[in-house]
Methyl-accepting chemotaxis protein
Amino acid sequence: MLALSALDNIKAFAELEAAIIPGGGIYLINEGNTYTWRKASKAFDLNVFRVGDKINSNSIVFRAMEENKTLIQSIPAYIYGTKMIAIAEPVVNEDGQVVGAFSIIFPKLHPVLKSFNNFAPIMAEAFPEGAFILATDLEKVTHRQPSKKFDVPGLYIGCELDEEEIASKVIKSKQSVSIELDSSAYGVPTYVTAYPLFDEDDSYEVVATLGVAVPKITASSLRDMSENLESSLSRIASAIGGIAVSASHIHSNQQELNKEIKEIIELTEGIDEVSTFIKKIAEAIKMLGLNASIEAARAGEAGKGFGVVAKEIKKLSEQSKSTVLKIKELTNKIKEKVDETSMKSCISLSSSQEQADITEEITTSIQGITSMSVELNKIAHEL
């Protein structure tokens, strides 16, 4: 029990202790059923137990006054968001009557949170791209540690948790949760993981969470490059595939053209044979005309008409012979052109075959690179 006359000294002591006690605390004095004085440390405060508030009839303060003795009570985390220890001491007047109480509320920190300021700075700088470490109770952020390279200003001490926060999901599921966020959340792609911290006395009660946010700038850039590479290679492979099909068609057309040129050569050779045959006929006609002229000369006046016929036969023979020469000349020129075309066709045929082979090799190579880019993209997503 505390004497009413000692309250001023108690207030002075609480003012001093609130500034130095590890973890902080809230110091309260009530007169009757109303709080009349309050002092909270910077390290720990709650928006409850305000001056002017009435004492709850179920509270430890009310019971301490009723029973006129010092009481200590553990307050579960689900009531005010963090687990606490409350101590209530009755205050009596000179007549020994209970007129109020002096109470202290301390947060009961999880061992991990007690050592947060020791390990978090080291842990935050251990990642190549930096990291952001934070801890929460059941309602708000209680600890934060940015690194030199990475910070999340929006998650400040006292920031209340909403249902979408990863810490809220951890508290609800009582299991660790890991998610990958795009740049819309924290400005850069980020990998976030959080773990539940359980009450030392009740392994089923979550009292806090510990979270780590790691930026994935390099992995994001690598993923973007690999995706662009994969897309580009796919387009190139498709284009080369089209070229390969075209080259195959050209090769087929060249084969058909080469075949037709050979048939033309065979036809020109047939024309040569016909020309030779016509030439022979012309020579035979010429001989007939010559014989006819001889016989007409022997017959004299009687063979005069036959001589005219012989003359015409000879003339026809000369014309046939001249036509044969022209046909042969034209045939030779056609054959020369066909030979030139055939040679070029063979060269084109060979080139188109080489093009098709090279295109097929390029396509195979592109497919191999595409497979590698897919694997690269997979690795980037796993980083």
